[in-house]
Design a protein that fits this description.
It contains one helix and 37 strands. It has one helix at 2-19, and strands at 38-42, 45-50, 59-66, 79-83, 113-118, 125-130, 138-145, 152-157, 164-170, 176-184, 190-198, 201-202, 211-213, 217-222, 234-242, 246-253, 258-261, 271-276, 282-288, 295-303, 306-308, 315-318, 324-329, 337-343, 351-358, 365-370, 379-384, 389-395, 400-406, 412-414, 416-422, 426-430, 436-439, 442-451, 455-464, 467-474, 481-485. The strands form ten sheets. Strands 9, 11, 12, 13 and 15 form a five-stranded antiparallel beta sheet that branches. Strands 18, 20, 21, 22 and 24 form a five-stranded antiparallel beta sheet that branches. It is globular and about 55 Å long.
Length: 496
């Protein structure tokens, strides 16, 4: 009996180290401090999915990969990012398509690696990292579109596959062209439902049901083909019936550029939307609750000096099952800030995102910031440049100390670190540590040292011909470590 029990926990430990998604504890652990019943180990394998970047022939896309150095991760392993296979022409079968070569192959943790593509119809990518490359592996897809619909700078973090996604902030307005990109990394087909919710509730979208995504392939679904209604503000719910997929929304506008809309964090009573650029000329908040009850929210802006209430938007009433949008206008007034949503009374789970506009007149560009998880243990963002990078840190509750490390550059240089104190209720655009001898782009790794939860976002700016192109990425926990039972703990209690 004892031997079988130990074997069971050994299997569970190995599974957790590979997937990085499990937190394991023993049932009814003795004592009040259950932290001693588990230890943290680096994950041993990570998979990431990157959507097809653009249909524009003018698009130039770069991919940047980085793995932070992680204690205990070992000295071997590999990582690569390769083209997803496409369904065969006869439509009867699909499988892995042998790529000529990977888009990029990292050489060692601690140094970024870049790869490039150009033109339209570039495929979605599937990435895997093992051993020392797996813990905290981060890949970003950055696209510059010189002209046309969605022109400007578009950026998205490649993400892990999952079974459910929420995207408040999508649209089927006449000026918008929004696609939901679904990427299946597995050997069997995935079956997906796409549900749409407008200002009056759920929309009839039978074409969004039972969408089949073949193995090792990607499907871009144009939202305007699913419904006839023109909706300015939509919430998209991607629900995977069978299998799993990666999902992201590409939101393109005819006049004011476009960007990727990443998934909001899971529905929750309180949300943080970090790092709205201080020069934003217009901010639109979009909120949705999947609950049966209405949600009433306090809306606060965490500024450099503390929490303030946007004039005229002190509270927000969100009807159950209906998408609610509020234009906050020029709410930033030249200061860094983050939106903090909390329930006024009874907590009701919600999802949220903001559409941010920079520039004026015909020189406008847009980006999106979804509600996100806290940094947690560690988070990384890549493709930073010597100029045009802003890192925003927000402590919505208690103050916190945060360590930020700028890695060596993709073409050379030496890493540098700096520690910051973020006061409770504030957002700070911090002065970044500068890697000495920097060549190429670099990674920023954020690690809370003490205090309350910290949220973070990074803004990239690249002005082209007077148009202020920009993109914003949030920094949730990289899930590079996983809690597993200690191998030497006393398991005899499980025999009773």
């Amino acid at each position: 009996m004892n031997r079988s029990t130990v074997s069971l926990f050994a299997c569970a430990t190995a599974l957790a180290a590979v997937t990085g998604f499990a937190t394991l504890t023993t049932p009814d652990a003795s004592g009040t401090d259950t932290a001693t019943t588990a230890t943290e180990l680096p994950v041993e394998r990570t998979s990431l999915l990157c959507p097809s970047p653009s249909i524009s022939d003018l698009a130039e896309t770069s991919y940047t990969s980085f793995t932070p150095v992680t204690k205990g991760a070992g000295s071997d392993g590999k990582a690569e990012l390769v083209s997803a296979a496409q369904e065969s022409k006869d439509g009867k079968k699909s499988g892995k398509k042998k790529a000529d070569k990977p888009v990029l192959t990292p050489k060692e943790p601690g140094s970024p690696v870049t790869g490039d593509t150009s033109g339209g119809d570039s495929p979605a990518l599937i990435g895997t990292a093992e051993g020392q490359f797996a813990p905290g592996w981060t890949v970003q897809e950055t696209t510059e579109v010189a002209a046309g619909t969605g022109r400007g700078l578009q950026g998205v973090n490649c993400t892990a596959a999952d079974t459910e996604f929420w995207f408040p902030g999508a649209s089927t307005d006449a000026a918008r062209t929004d696609y939901v990109h679904l990427t299946n990394p597995d050997d069997s087909a995935a079956v997906v439902d796409i549900e749409l919710y407008g200002k009056d509730g759920a929309l009839e979208a039978p074409a969004g049901e039972d969408i089949t995504v073949p193995p090792h392939s990607s499907e871009p679904i144009l939202l305007s083909t699913l419904v006839s209604d023109k909706q300015t503000n939509l919430t998209v719910h991607v629900n995977v019936r069978s299998g799993r997929v990666g999902a992201a929304v590409q939101a393109l506008d005819d006049k004011i550029g476009g960007d990727w809309l990443a998934a909001s964090t899971d529905p929750a009573g309180s949300l943080v939307l970090p790092g709205i650029p201080k020069d934003a000329t217009d901010v639109r908040l979009v909120v949705f609750t999947p609950d049966d009850a209405d949600a009433d929210l306090n809306v606060k802006l965490a500024s450099p000096s503390g929490l303030i209430t946007p004039a005229g938007s002190e509270t927000l009433h969100v009807k159950a099952g209906m998408t609610t949008a509020v234009d906050l206008g020029d709410v930033m007034r030249g200061e860094a800030g983050s939106l903090v949503l909390t329930p006024t009374d009874q907590s009701v789970p919600v999802v949220a995102a903001v559409r941010v506009t920079r520039g004026k007149g015909e020189e406008k560009e847009t980006a999106f910031i979804p509600a996100t998880h806290a940094v947690g243990t560690r988070a990384t963002v890549v493709d930073n440049s010597a100029k045009g990078t802003t890192l925003s840190l927000v402590a919505p509750g208690r103050g916190a100390q945060v360590k930020v490390t700028a890695s060596a550059g993709s073409g050379g240089g030496k890493a540098a670190s700096k520690t910051y104190t973020i006061k409770g209720g504030t957002t700070q655009d911090v002065e970044l540590p500068v890697p000495s001898g920097l060549k190429g782009t670099y990674a920023l790794t954020v690690e809370p040292v003490s205090g309350g939860p910290v949220y973070a976002a990074r803004t990239l700016v690249a002005t082209q011909e007077g148009v202020p192109g920009f993109t914003v990425q949030t920094l949730p926990d990289d899930r590079g470590m996983v809690e597993v039972p200690q191998a030497d703990q006393d398991l005899s209690v499980l025999q009773k």
